[in-house]
Amino acid sequence: MFTVNPFAELSALLSPAVLQTYVVLMIVLVAAGTLFDIVHKGSAKYFFDNWRRSKARGARQVGGGELLSIAVRTALVDVLASGEFCNRKRRIAHLLTMYGFVLYVVTTAVMIFAYPTPVTPTPAILPQLWWLGALMVCVGGYWFWFFIRADVAAEGRSPLRLMRADLFILSLLASVTLALLWAAAGGGTGVLFGLYVLATTVLFASVPWSKFAHMFFKPAAAFEKRVSKADGTAENLPTQSRDDPEQQRRHSMELLQNAPMQMGLGIKREPPRHY
Amino acid sequence: MPTFVYMTRCDGCGHCVDICPSDIMHIDKTYRRAYNIEPNMCWECYSCVKACPQHAIDVRGYADFAPLGHSVRVHRDEEKGTIAWRIKFRNGTEKNFLSPITTKPWGQAIPKLADVAGPSKEMRDGPLLYNEPKYIRLDDGDLHTLAAAGLKMKKGVYY
């Protein structure tokens, strides 16, 4: 089961060209949806306006080399390691979902384009990675949905309540779960396959209305946040901290003269309970 | 005007929902980010602003108190034990404050009143409240009373 390419098996009933066209169509829908979202919300206009204003107000100018190193740090820390999350459980759930999704989508595309029929035997590693990616999405996604989601107990709502904000996570989980069920049931073009295609189409076609596009916007926002810290504006947030010996000598810091640098977690020690 | 959330910075973690004493920070249905559902009930206590780990919440002060073009932002760092304020005036003046967090664990710094002697008749009849003048600064002399200012209370209403 784990070494069988379910799309190659499907080629007996459905021409590979259909599957390949479908994948290309989904990619086009994501690109078009994201562009529509950007134009409709004016996100790019706002982002560059903000960038220009920040640059004009900055205490120091950030040079090209520094911008490049900030970009690399953003890519490594904020994107690849989901560094913006302060809560460990959220961070791990996001890493699982993110890498699982990438693995699942890439292996799907490779299997459909490079190994479309049983004539070209699929290397066993591909279906295994497909299963692994899908399972990672399930673990991370269901963990988030049932245990980490923040709007239930705090507002006395039913955990089964659905809202538009849930469109992305639920269609993703539906698509991946149905994919696994369909593959485990032996493939074919039955009801499971129909539901799988439906869920996947909803996932990729609802980009203008769901939170799908956050994966493109968040890296840009993280980069902009780091640059604003580097040029001194820091979104008007205070930049002085106790680390600086100059600040430690302030009259207002008298009480902390002999205190350790790390004073414990404080309210972070008690995360909000939402269930 | 009270608190508002920068939706691009908010990640929907719910810390502000949990800490708001008025229960007016809720999670939005379309984006799963936080927002202030009742700005006119906000007392600008800054709890949500300080609790937000992403610094996604800001306060737009009432115009009679905080003029246009101002910026007041705070960073509460529990691990370092400091609270820092950066206040920008619209003429470009900037003030930076850095202070220790003085919030104490529950029950530890409250004086045990059972161990303290009760007030004497002079203290009860006097104008000073419990632990005054120690707890109030009297840099410019004694308490400001009518007698100290040379005034007398006249019974009745006079315009």
List strands and helices in order, with pairings:
The complex is a heterodimer of chains A (275) and B (159).
Chain A: H1 6-10, H2 16-41, H3 43-57, H4 64-80, H5 88-114, H6 125-148, H7 167-184, H8 191-205, H9 214-230, H10 245-248
Helix pairs in contact in A: 4-9, 5-6, 6-7, 7-8
Chain B: E1 3-5, H1 15-19, E2 25-27, E3 34-36, H2 47-51, E4 57-59, E5 71-77, E6 82-88, E7 94-100, H3 121-125
Antiparallel strand pairs in B: 1-4, 2-3, 5-6, 6-7
Could you please describe the fold and organization of this structure?
The complex is a heterodimer of chains A (275) and B (159). By secondary structure, chain A is mainly α. Chain A has one domain (6-234, 241-269). In chain A, 61% of the residues lie in helices and 0% in strands. Chain A contains 10 helices and no strands. Chain B has 159 residues and is mainly beta. Helix content of chain B is 9%, strand content 21%. Chain B has 3 helices and 7 strands, in the order βαββαββββα. Chain B has helices at 15-19, 47-51, 121-125, and strands spanning 3-5, 25-27, 34-36, 57-59, 71-77, 82-88, 94-100. In chain B, the strands form 3 sheets. In chain B, strands 5-6-7 form a 3-stranded antiparallel beta sheet. The two termini of chain B are 36 Å apart. Classes of the chains: A mainly alpha (275), B mainly beta (159). The A-B interface holds A 84-87, 90, 150-151, 154-155, 163-166, 211, 217, 221, 225, 235-243, 247, 250, 252-253, 255-256, 259, 261-268, 272, 274 and B 8-9, 11-15, 17-19, 26-32, 51, 53-55, 71, 73-75, 77-82, 84-86, 88, 96-102.
